[in-house]
Amino acid sequence: MAKILDFFGSRKDARAAAAGSASVAAFLDGFSIEVMPRTAAKIEDFRAILPAGTRVYVAHIEGTPIEEMVATAARIAGQGFPVMPHFPARIIPDAATLADWIARYQGEAGVDQALLLGGGVDTPHGDFHCSMQLMESGLFDKAGFRRLHVAGHPEGNRDIDPDGGERMVMEALRWKQAFSERTDAAMAIATQFVFEAAPVIAWEKRLREAGVGLPIHIGVAGPAKLQTLIKFAMACGVGPSLRVLQRRAADVTKLVLPFTPDGVLAELAAHKAANPEFGIEAVHFFPLGGIGKTAEYTAGTGTARPAAATA
């Protein structure tokens, strides 16, 4: 009898695992990935590692020349991928510079979409200090940019709300929701990376209650060494979900093993399957352990072709 129960139990576990794998694969369909010029340079051809049509964000770090940004966007776009460069408000000195960047991206790389964010510097370089000012400039609409994404912080952002709350962040998101309703821009919220599902689920519920219905592209860190993820998480102000990494770090047997986002993706996928109204539209990968490793990981879920390069 025990053997029979073991047999049916194992079959049940296998069916559950298969269902979970299928829901994760469906959840990851249409994922995007973020690169920087220096990391993108290590990939000879993105067509070898990413599914056709994958949106590639190009992060603009302070000090990176616009020429490098545009050249990276042009190369990736030339390989057939939609490119979404960052426009960090605080490093753009004035409207003339903003117009120049938009024109360069459009003319040299065919870009027609952008991620607008405040930017990770304390002191603005000029006239802009937030993404709403970039949106209000009207320059993206004038240039025919059809899609604008904005930043989201499921676990708060102390740069905006120093008290640890979310009053200012939520007010800004309500403004952006209203902007999307009075313009033709297709918009979504691209978030900071998280390591735990519960804060995301609670945050999405608060957004809906506040009248913010913009689709959410949830940020997730790709496979990486635990020490690497902890370093980035602390530098980027990741909130309570950092405890997932801290708990794992306490187990010395796991320190040498790469951390993967299996847990958070499985929980979010299961919640989406059970609650179709859940506002997560796509997953956005931060390849903190390398672009190639993240591409290999997504290929292993059945969402992509086998990866042929590492970076």
Give the DSSP E fraction (strand runs of 2 or more residues): 5-15%
- Write down the Rg: 20 Å
Count of domains: 1
Shape: globular
Spans of 5+ residues with little confidence (pLDDT < 50)? Answer: 1-19, 304-311
The CATH topology name reads TIM Barrel
Number of helices: 12
What does the average pLDDT come to? 85
Task: Write up what this structure looks like.
The structure is a single chain. The chain is α/β, with parallel strands linked by helices and 311 residues long. The protein has one domain (28-300): TIM Barrel. It is built from 12 helices and 8 strands. The protein has helices at 2-28, 37-40, 66-78, 95-109, 131-136, 139-142, 167-182, 197-209, 226-235, 242-249, 262-274, 291-300, and strands at residues 32-35, 56-58, 83-88, 113-117, 147-152, 186-194, 216-221, 280-286. Helix 4 (95-109) links the parallel strand 3 (83-88) and strand 4. It is globular and about 50 Å long. The termini are far apart.
Features:
311 residues, alpha/beta, disordered N terminus, TIM Barrel
Fold blueprint:
Blueprint: H1 2-28, E1 32-35, H2 37-40, E2 56-58, H3 66-78, E3 83-88, H4 95-109, E4 113-117, H5 131-136, H6 139-142, E5 147-152, H7 167-182, E6 186-194, H8 197-209, E7 216-221, H9 226-235, H10 242-249, H11 262-274, E8 280-286, H12 291-300
Parallel strand pairs: 1-2, 1-8, 2-3, 3-4, 4-5, 5-6, 6-7, 7-8
Helix pairs in contact: 1-11, 3-4, 9-10
